[in-house]
Give the backbone structure.
Amino acid sequence: MKKAFIQLHIAVFLAGFTGILGKLIMLNEGLLVWYRLMISAVSLWVIYFFQKKSQRISFKDSIKIFGIGSIAALHWVSFYGSIKYSNVSIALVCFSAIGFFTAFLEPLIFRVKVDIIELLLGLLMIFGIYFIFHFDPNYKTGIIIGLLSALLASIFPILNKVLLKRIAADTVTRYELSGGFIFLTLMLPIYLRLFPTGYLFPNLHDWLWLLILSWLCTVLAFNLSMKALQRISAFTANLSYNLEPVYGILLAFFVLGENKYFNKGFYVGLILIFFAIIAQMLRLWRKRRSRSS
């Protein structure tokens, strides 16, 4: 059990590290995600080919998974776009708004009752983001793109819930990454026309960061989380992933020194967001404990 917790938190830490890598890689957000998806998808197909762990799925399911993968790709593009137009900390703060969007969209999609407490905690996160924006208007574009990223990030896990009841998680991930790569390949010429750049090919340092991003923060993080799920509950795993923005922001402070760019408004908003995350974690933990008792 202890080993599983260590594996899970390494996976969460690696997920939080993706923002740092997005800042270090000089490619624009569209090309960055395209290279990430290409390396990750090819790597997963090679791994599962040699492990003989392939599950057949219907054409209809493959189209659905490819569609969800396209949404995931757009989430990553907007997430790294938020980093490019602001910084890592702002992008991760905006990513915290996923709680608000999930609390609103999940009941809408599955036609169930809205959890008022979750909605209120989500609104508290939105208020924290507004507080940051109110005191730091220089990050307006990055915040808007970051909120779009959080909205997209809240959609594809909800859609995955239905698929994961019938299809193995590793198969869904492999097809989603492939679908995202195909979608972005088709959209990239249009994207580059709208957002032109003369920097199309990674340099040596970019390749290093891209391989770390793809192999460690995507493939390895996925494998570690799957191994952890063999020993611990999905509830515990989902709860732990709430720490991803926390890890990422702390890394941005220590590695990139981003804390020197912020005034007191940022920290007030950040405290509100952290409070909402902790309150939600405690609330879910108590609910889980009361059910098991």
Q: What stands out?
A: The two ends are 21 Å apart (CA to CA). Residues 2-292 form one domain.
